[in-house]
Write the structure tokens for this entry.
Amino acid sequence: MSVKRIPLEVLFGDPELSQVQVAPDGGRLAFVAPWEGVKNLWVQDRHTGGRRRVTADRGRGVLWYRWLPSGLLVYAQDKDGDENWRLYAVDPAGGEPRLLTPGEGVQAQLLAVHPDYPDELLVLLNDRDPALHDVWRVNARSGERRRVLENPGFIGFLADERLEVRLAHKSSDDGGGELYLREGDAWKPFMRWGLDDSLGTMPLRVRGDTLYMLSSIGRDTSALVALDLKSGSQEVLATDPDYDLDGSSLLFHPRAEKPEAIGVMRDRMGWIVLDDNLQPDFDRLGELEGDVYLTSRDLENRVWVIYEQLDRKSPRYWLYDRQSGDLELIGEAIPALAEYTLAPMQPVRYRARDGLEIEAYLTLPPDREPRGLPAVIAPHGGPWHRDVWGYNPWAQWLANRGYAVLQPNFRGSTGYGKALLNAGNKEWGRAMQDDLTDAVRWLVEQGIADPGRVAIMGGSYGGYATLAGLAFTPELYAAGVDIVGPSNLFTLLETIPPYWKPMIALFHTRMGHPERDAELLRAASPLFSADKIRAPLLIGQGANDPRVKRTESLQIVEALREKGKPVEYVEYPDEGHGFMKAENRLDFHRKAEAFLERYLNP
């Protein structure tokens, strides 16, 4: 069986359809699609099918948006990847976008909206202090904004159904978390948790005197709990014995004022339904072939937009009518994929050297016997993150070119409970890296991989792991591809964005303290072992990256070139932490494709 080569333009160009959301009145759909090669915002009438473009951006494009209850659209842009987000409002009926937040050097974050205040939103701005976001109330129609709360040192806030800020949280000195309840102008300590629970415990919503939050306190996995703010009593609403619940998927309809369902990412996405009225809907959605994500709903809770994730087909958007039970296909994100044979993504498990079970996703070339293949280990970023099942352009690109691809959810990954998460504390370049080394050995033992033709490739933490793999296990890899990966953990911690500084204790306790753990951080920094790197290395960097500054790449490039080591470096002047513009993604992946072909000979 031979398969057609999937063009890089299909894999890494902008999707034809993305971020579909239904309007609050249920009569229109908004979505992001290219116009003159740039992602712009469009609106389509559900009944006539007529569509119109509502933005005309020729630069960075629209990266994120949402409907306001009034029917206005609010979207976000930064400047060349600096992550200083600006919020704009635009009327889908026509007119120029209105800038709602300050420009240069200020980052805006959306905090809350509610149907009772249709044109208003709470926004976080760090205009007063780059390290702290104050709370502002903004009218999207008039552009009026006023500061309603000056931040005394918190990293996050929760507002209620009246758009009143009720709770705030911050990092504690030991890397844990502290939750405060607002009483007038004062803040009262309400709850505290330690380092072990710091990434599995977080407030999600507050309604009346009830706080809904994820909590791993007293259990291994994060559960959804309801806390009474007056008595402090709590009720567990949903839990899974093996996997953390996904707070970002919590369904909490603003008119229902209570949680309705929550997702849990096991090998694949699943749902725990909390409102029995929704069970028939999830039964109907379960008839779809892929994994189901609910992206938006109208205010009547009748019309839902569903994002269906599949591994061997393009992601799809569906319109679901709860009253009739009808599922109508809106469109495919990447229709051109239908012309090609994609590879299945298989959940697999392997044992690390200390016995810890690691879950991973394996994608194999669809046209080759899985024996003695060139292989790519693709560690995810974060590292407090995880890979999930579904269409993955990297996995499909590499498998289409003849490589086996393994994406390990190594220790330190989220989603698998706090035991696996906390096993990664202060293990950068150590046990976390050993899990990747053991992934290579597992592929070889299974007969899948040719031990002489294994590469490692990743972005952000995955880029760090690439550098660490080449520096600390130089005999293991034939090549490495690093995108925006840090090479020196001291300079990484010194140059974090100012708005991350209030949670610096989290980095010090999970990575290492630059003074107390100096020896550990030095040993874990690939820069100081650059002389041990033997394999060819390709590095891609955004010039304006606020998280991993360009010096992280430049210093290891310089060190390798001084030693005559093979390294290629490409920098994009209009990018930040990753490559958002299609032309830059395509340019880099053309270079990466030629690089891997040169050294792994697929």
Summary: The mean pLDDT is 97. The CA atoms of residues 39 and 133 lie 28 Å apart. The two ends are 16 Å apart (CA to CA). The chain has eleven helices and 35 strands.
